[in-house]
Design goal:
By secondary structure, the chain is α/β, with parallel strands linked by helices. Helix content is 30%, strand content 24%. It has a single domain, classed as Rossmann fold (3-Layer(aba) Sandwich), CATH 3.40.50.1820. The strands form two sheets. It has an eight-stranded mixed β-sheet with strand order 1-2-4-3-7-8-12-13, sandwiched between helices. A hairpin with a 7-residue loop joins strand 1 and strand 2.
């Protein structure tokens, strides 16, 4: 837990928060925890003065550190509760949403209306194509009943229900993001050297309210020098609102 955080009420979600007059809800990506490989925790600590945050987990973490991925419907319900809770806190005048990767898809599927600003970071435009094969063919991946146990980066292990692959294959991520961007404006930050999402065609946003901003040489997690550029971009956009 971050040094300045308090524990989020468990009936809302597993997570932490810092109160501010404006709250930023962070929606993390697939198969990781609330910190999003430290991307979201770094962003939370870079928020403008007077801004609070909520960092929460979509998934369940076991005692051995492995993560059990929740279904899309479960994740949307959690995000809905978190946004509502943030807006109900004393002195809060606005709630903003910042999402990364698959966390953008969950946010766009929910399409919350009780948020002021929305920033999406490196969302995938396609998630169903070959995703089942990608994860289940990883070295060390094995089936345990209805759950796939899959080794991930940095020694992490993710447990994925077979149902999550069915949901991904049934979801047109590009259409979901485009539809959300037709209904309301949001900023979409692109990673210029995204190792996971190379070759995406962002022309689908041409007739939407989406603003595209690229960060050159950034990988999917906006690591190294790109991290500070992203922190500055997000903080400035929120402060200017």
């Amino acid at each position: 837990m971050l040094a300045q955080s308090q524990t989020l009420p468990p009936e809302v979600a597993a997570g932490e928060y810092r109160l501010g007059s404006q709250m930023v809800v962070f929606s993390h990506g697939f198969g990781v925890d609330r910190y999003g490989n430290e991307l979201l925790s770094d962003l939370a600590q870079a928020m403008p003065a007077g801004y609070g945050y909520v960092l929460f987990d979509y998934n369940q973490k076991a005692d051995d550190g492995s993560i059990l991925v929740s279904t899309f419907a479960q994740q949307q319900a959690i995000l809905d509760r978190v946004i509502a809770w943030a807006g109900q806190q004393s002195g809060v005048t606005a709630v903003h949403l910042v999402a990364h990767s698959m966390g953008c898809i969950i946010a766009a599927l929910l399409a919350p209306t009780a948020i002021k600003n929305c920033i999406f970071l490196a969302p995938p435009l396609s998630i169903g194509e070959n995703v089942r094969q990608y994860f289940t063919s990883k070295v060390g991946a094995q089936k345990d009943g209805p759950i796939w146990v899959v080794p991930r980066r940095r020694g992490a292990v993710t447990r994925m229900p077979e149902k999550i692959f069915d949901e991904m294959e049934a979801t047109d991520a590009g259409a979901v993001l485009s539809r959300f961007g037709t209904a309301r404006p949001y900023l979409l930050a692109l990673a210029g050297a995204d190792e996971l999402l190379a070759g995406q065609d962002y022309r689908i946003f041409a007739d939407t309210k989406v603003e595209l901003v690229g960060i050159d040489d950034a990988n999917h997690d906006f690591s190294d020098h790109a991290r500070q550029q992203l922190c500055t971009l997000v903080a400035e956009r929120l402060a200017a609102s």
